[in-house]
Amino acid sequence: MIGLVAVTASGRAASSALAAAWGDEAVRRYAEDGVSAGDALRTAYAECDAVVSFLAVGATVRVLAPALRDKHEDPAVVCVDEARQFAVSVLGGHNGANELAQRVAEVLDCVPVITTASDASGITPLDSFGGDLGFVLENPQRLAAVGAQILSGEPTMVFGAERWPLPALPPNVTPTQNPVEADIVISDELVDTSDTALVYRPASLVIGVGASRGVSAQEVLDTIDAALAAGGLSAGSVLRLASLDLKADEAGLLEAARSRRWPVVFHAAADLAAVEVPNPSPVVAAETGTPSVAEAAARYTGPTRPLADLTVHNIKSPMATAAVARVRPRGRLAVIGLGPGARDLLAPRAVKELRRASVVVGLDQYVEQIRDLLRPGTQIRATALGAEEERARSAVELARTGLAVALIGSGDAGVYAMASPALDHADGDDVDVVCVPGITAATAASNVLGAALGHDHCSISLSDLHTPWQAIERRIRAAAEGDFVVSFYNPRSRQRDWQLGKALGILAAHRPGSTPVGWVRNASRPDESWGLTTLDTFDPVVVDMYTVVTVGCSQSRIVGGRFVTPRGYTWAQ
Ligand code: SAH
């Protein structure tokens, strides 16, 4: 729940705008009815997870100072000034305030102000480090010291990071194989660390549990704890409990899971029977249909994923059995479209993914386009034009080694670009793939020209490097007969200078000479240029490989100097 505290007319208007944008159920409004600003703020702070205060930063801090406890627990606080120019993340920057300031700024169209050091310098913040991989920080009280050490550029050692697809760490953070000398330890094992190390527990352990009917929750927990102790493993790294579906109503097992807030899943006997285990039992098989419950359930991760590695074999008590397996982290491949060029046409999600990666693969000119967005320490694998398949394959191979890789391309990465060759190679189950859409050249150009794509349209690449010309020509004919608006990608280069003329000739046979033809070169880039003319008068010489050419359908027209394709379906044929 987000509390909105406003006492002035301007504040109340802004608070209404936030309520309208986020929905009334997400917010609670304070001080609308003559309560003092201070009381309203104190109440909001006590009742909500986060507060947006339309009071000055100083006033807000003075009122809340006595209530401040712990930066990991306290509600996040964002202040918005009376003129609605700034949304300032004031308290709990890494506990939601930085994000909230961004969200407020988006709705109120003002500037988010973020002053936490790691965000300001672009360094991966430690308090949310590995959060999306299920990391839990065991000793948050050490955050400030290690954070300051990294920020000041001092040598810092990390243990256990290479197993995980983590975002980039700055160059002064280097790996070590010795947890005692590490400043940051990522491990599900109860390893020896220095007193000052930050310890993250990754969610990496699946506990397989077998149980006799009527087992107590305490016995289940004792058996699990004995299994974890036998492996020298931390309970903080338990991802979930797993068992056989016959046990789905076993009260002791369910209660044990609930008491530790561990999720519990149940698998079919047939799935578990297929899992290789060290201690299969014919007795268990006769009873349940699978020769192993605990060991097999610990290893089984679903029909397509690789089995988890068994770390602790069956540990038994009179009525329960537990085994522990470690899941194999999967690498992460983000395929990201950067849009046509301008920074404000790059999706916020693309920015987030670029900052989530530790390696960026792409053509050097695209890397330059976003280099300033990358976190310090991000490895860059920039390549020159050509060798696209190889670039896509190398991105997948890197992700397969467990890294977080971003493969970038212009426009939309799935349109005549890297996504398909990459996904062709990412056919295993060892990589998580995320694709982020980008604004493709056809829509970027259509918006420069007007509303060229207002009705059915298609894109055709005139590059015959990967596609025989006969196939391209067949599609142009089909588009001509179908009366589609056509966007031509890769329209013309020094070596390929006749294809565009030929294509336009095919279309001209099916639509009037007055049909609009627009071209846009370097859409949204600093040297953008464009032109709008008709099939009769268009001269392909203005076109090169940085250009997209859009030809209207028989109904398209030029209105007020703009390319317009009408929306209606009720055309005269
Ligand atoms: N993935 C890209 C297309 C790659 S093919 C996208 O979705 O936009 C390369 C062709 O795209 C170029 O030859 C040109 O025709 C077109 N193109 C890409 N960016 C462009 C831009 N900013 N302006 C005009 N055309 C562009």
What does this molecule look like?
The chain is of the alpha/beta class. Helices cover 29% and strands 24% of the residues. Strands 2-1-3-4-5-6 form a six-stranded mixed β-sheet, sandwiched between helices. It has a five-stranded mixed β-sheet with strand order 7-11-10-8-9. A five-stranded mixed β-sheet has the order 14-13-12-16-15. Helix 7 (217-231) packs across helix 8 (251-260) and helix 17 runs parallel beside helix 18. The radius of gyration is 30 Å and the shape is globular. The two termini are 57 Å apart.
Distance between the termini: 57 Å
Category from helices, strands and their pairing = alpha/beta
Helical fraction? 25-40%
Number of strands: 29
The molecules bound to the chains, other than polymers, are: S-adenosyl-L-homocysteine
Mean pLDDT rating: 93
Strand content: 15-25%
- Sketch the major β-sheet: 6 strands, mixed
What is the count of helical runs?
18
Multimerization state: single chain
Give the helices and strands, then pairings.
Layout: E1 2-5, H1 9-22, E2 27-30, H2 37-47, E3 50-53, H3 57-64, E4 76-80, E5 86-91, H4 97-108, E6 111-113, H5 117-120, E7 136-137, H6 143-151, E8 156-159, E9 173-175, E10 184-186, E11 198-201, E12 205-211, H7 217-231, E13 238-244, H8 251-260, E14 264-267, H9 269-273, H10 282-288, H11 294-299, E15 309-316, E16 320-326, E17 331-337, H12 348-354, E18 359-363, H13 364-370, E19 379-383, H14 388-400, E20 404-409, H15 419-425, E21 431-436, H16 441-449, E22 450-451, E23 457-461, H17 469-482, E24 485-489, H18 499-508, E25 516-521, E26 529-534, E27 547-551, E28 557-559, E29 562-564
Helix pairs in contact: 2-3, 7-8, 14-15, 17-18
Bound molecules: S-adenosyl-L-homocysteine.
